[in-house]
Automatic annotation (TrEMBL):
The lineage of its organism: Bacteria, Pseudomonadati, Pseudomonadota, Alphaproteobacteria, Rhodobacterales. This is Taurine-pyruvate aminotransferase. Transmembrane segments: none annotated. Belongs to the class-III pyridoxal-phosphate-dependent aminotransferase family. It is an enzyme of class 2 (transferase). The keyword NADP does not apply. Pfam families: Aminotran_3. InterPro entries: Aminotrans_3, Aminotrans_3_PPA_site, PyrdxlP-dep_Trfase, PyrdxlP-dep_Trfase_major, PyrdxlP-dep_Trfase_small. Keywords: Aminotransferase, Pyridoxal phosphate, Pyruvate, Transferase. One of its GO terms (molecular function) is pyridoxal phosphate binding. Its cofactor is pyridoxal 5'-phosphate. The keyword Transferase applies. It comes from Sulfitobacter undariae. Its EC number is 2.6.1.77.
Length: 463
């Protein structure tokens, strides 16, 4: 191989991929006898692979990212124009698209004030942890440094983000992890029977109060932040129970704990509001976001804070340590904010938040209707176009459907031209929630096609 082959020479492309590309999240043994899949082109909700097979993508680029759909020329034009003008300048300086996008973003996030640019979801979360640690040192003699995270939540693939990760399966074999990250229980009401003491009623308040118990156990003077997903994504599409978020905010206020909301998946429209937390009328202190910020047209992530958090880093300029001593080289790429500006304009111009609410309701109804036909669907849940169907062997015991069977359902859909996903629980082998997050432009016809494929797959795989 000399690397000079043409993009139309598919067999050589597959050969090079098989020989040299290490795919994410993949066991490569099967690729010795079957071809790795290469996605070649996309338009709207549809993608084509190396053999020209068309699929409808019900998971926005596999991982909840392409919110405005594929093939957006206006984003490509905006990025191109910016790149030829200035592609990059890193370090301490600002940029024109960075400045414009910060104002657009803050306008959508009342109460928030500052945007810190970086390039992945994990990285944005790491920035938050570093801020919490530095605030602990500056204000609390290093004591208020602990960061609480929730069972089943995920915050990224770096070692720090994994220390803050509630999906044990992803962490196995990668320890040891840094200290000071403390786990709190999940809030999945459907599985409250697995949680000792969970009540019949007011589960949301109970689940939030369980976090308070942990804060009291650790000592509130040692806890700096609570980091939560607004709707847990990879951990099973977990919508919070009634009253949960309001009580969480009260607890954080009472014990002077920063509330860090990880909007890497929910951010920028996915649930039908600009941000997931906005469904619950609460105000965070820090918000991380990535995937939907530029719909994957460029790599960009942001950590957004209140002015109060920002102020803690500028109160004593005579102290040489008194600023956030952090950098992200690729936070200086201008393609990210240039793409993000146009991405946000598209969502506004095409009323995609409204479409997300309407199509999300429709898809929830269609998936719920499948429950009458398939006993394996234990619960359908979600918000906007961020939906999950938890599969069980028996509705009474709620025993998870084996992961292999869930995998066979996902594979059957894929074979029939519909790409869906499945989420991760903490327990190896128990990943049993099908995941749906089509682009925010989707129509009833698209949804019907997706739901029909799921219906067929459940029938074929489970008999
Ligand atoms: N937070 C959440 C909620 C995520 O789902 C993910 C990725 N799936 C991340 C953080 C990490 O983002 P990235 O892969 O861009 O580092």
């Amino acid at each position: 191989m000399d690397g000079t082959f043409n993009e139309n020479d598919i067999s050589r492309i597959v050969e090079a991929d098989r020989a040299h590309v290490w795919h994410h999240l993949s066991q490569h043994k099967p690729y010795e006898t079957s071809d790795p899949r290469i996605i070649v082109e996309g338009k709207g909700l549809r993608v084509w692979d190396q053999y020209g097979k068309e699929s409808i993508d019900a998971v926005s680029g596999g991982v909840w990212t392409v919110n405005v759909g594929y093939g957006r020329e206006s984003i490509a034009d905006a990025v191109r124009d910016q790149l030829v003008k200035l592609n990059f300048f890193g370090g301490t300086v600002g940029s024109i698209p960075g400045s414009i996008f910060s104002e657009m973003l803050i306008d959508k996030m009342p109460g928030m004030s500052r945007v810190y640019y970086c390039s992945s979801g994990s990285e944005a979360n790491e920035k938050a942890y570093k801020m919490v640690r530095q605030i602990a040192h500056k204000r609390f003699g290093g004591k208020k440094h602990k960061i609480l995270y929730r069972d089943r939540d995920y915050h990224g693939s770096t070692i720090g983000a994994m220390a803050c990760g509630g999906q044990d399966e992803r962490n196995l074999q990668y320890g040891p992890f840094p200290d000071g990250f403390i786990r709190v229980p999940h809030c999945l009401e459907y599985r409250k029977h697995e949680q000792a003491g969970a009540p019949e009623e007011n589960y949301g308040i109970w689940a939030a109060n369980e976090i308070e118990k942990i804060i009291l156990r650790e000592g509130p003077e040692t806890v700096g932040a609570l980091c939560l997903e607004p709707v847990t994504a990879g951990g099973g599409v977990i919508t919070p129970p009634d009253g949960y978020w309001e009580r969480i905010r009260e607890i954080c206020d009472q014990y002077e704990i920063l509330l860090h909301i990880d909007e890497v998946v929910c951010g920028v429209g996915r649930t039908g509001t600009w941000f997931g937390y906005q469904h619950y009328g609460i105000k965070p202190d820090m918000v991380s976001m990535a995937k939907g910020v530029a719909s994957g047209y460029a790599a960009i992530s942001c950590l957004v804070t209140t002015e109060a958090v920002f102020d803690m880093f500028k109160d004593d300029p005579s102290d040489v340590l008194n600023y956030f001593r952090d950098i992200s080289t690729f936070g200086g790429c201008t393609a990210g904010p240039a793409a993000a500006i146009e991405n946000m304009k598209i969502i506004e111009r095409e009323n995609l938040l409204e479409n997300t609410i309407n199509m999300g309701d429709y898809m929830l109804d269609q998936l719920s209707a499948l429950q009458d036909k398939h006993n394996a669907i234990g619960q359908v849940r979600g918000k906007g176009l961020f939906l999950g169907a938890e599969l069980v062997t028996d509705r009474a015991t709620k025993e998870p459907l084996p992961e292999k069977t869930v995998g066979a359902i996902v594979a059957d859909c894929s074979k029939n031209g519909v790409i869906i996903g499945a989420t991760n629980r903490s327990i190896p082998g128990q990943n049993n929630t099908l995941c749906f997050s089509p682009a925010l432009i989707c129509t009833k016809d698209d949804i019907n096609q997706i739901v029909e494929a799921v219906d067929g797959a459940l029938g074929r795989v489970l008999g």
